[in-house]
Amino acid sequence: MLRVFKAFLETTPQLFVQIYILMQHGKTNCYQYAAIFMSLCGISFSMVDYQMSLQKSLPDKGEFHVTSKFMYLFYKLLTITSWVLSISLITLLSVRISVILLIFLWICGFTWTLKQCTTFCKSKKMEYLYRTVVGIILIFTFFNIKDRRTKVCISIYYATHTVVTLGILFVYMFWKPSIIKEIHFTIVIILTILHLVLGIIFLVVYYKHFHPTTYCRPQACLDEVDGMTGQKDRVKTSRFQNFLMP
């Protein structure tokens, strides 16, 4: 959990600044590209590690196989990369618009967490802090913060990201067409679209074929000892079910 918080509260903002500076000055080298790639991989791997830990913590979930790990990794890596490039493009166009967009997205994410009535922390103050952090994470990638089906929420989330990304690209086409003629901007735009399309493909394939969705049915009849044990197990696992669900 802490690694995920660090990835999105520390690494991701630094990555935005780094890409913004590279786009603004246009002077890059292989080491800078490698550093950006490693940062994106680090963010994605933190999501995979968290998902693995979560699957082990919840007894009603299936095993997280190697294929599932790779599908989940590429889904996160591609969608996060596309979104980071999109925000970097709009930041280069206007820092003010970029800040307004990020604040608006955070408000949407924070409002959604409020409606979910999360119970991750014991005190109300810490719970609001937790929801604030979750709102920041939701700017960059999707989390299901309740143990429930995600089809509708995740569809709305990435549909919104797709519309915003395409909107940013259209703004460049009609507002700053001269910038697109530069080679490095053309490459960035192509990479943004390519990563978005591939990321959504991996997303659909992962949730359709590789997502651990095996639910264990509780036994209808339990003897006295098993009943007490089951009750204790439910108390233990209830805390884990309040975790973020990627």
UniProtKB/TrEMBL annotation:
Domain of life: Eukaryota
Keywords associated with the record: Cell membrane, Membrane, Transmembrane, Transmembrane helix
Transmembrane annotation, as ranges: 31-50, 70-91, 97-116, 128-145, 157-175, 187-207
Subcellular location: Cell membrane; Membrane
InterPro entries per record: XK-rel, XK-related_scramblase
Primary localization class, coarse: membrane
Topology of this chain in the membrane: Multi-pass membrane protein
GO cellular component labels: plasma membrane
PANTHER family according to UniProt: XK-RELATED PROTEIN (PTHR16024), XK-RELATED PROTEIN 9 (PTHR16024:SF13)
Assigned protein family: Belongs to the XK family.
Full protein name: XK-related protein
Chain's gene name: XKR9
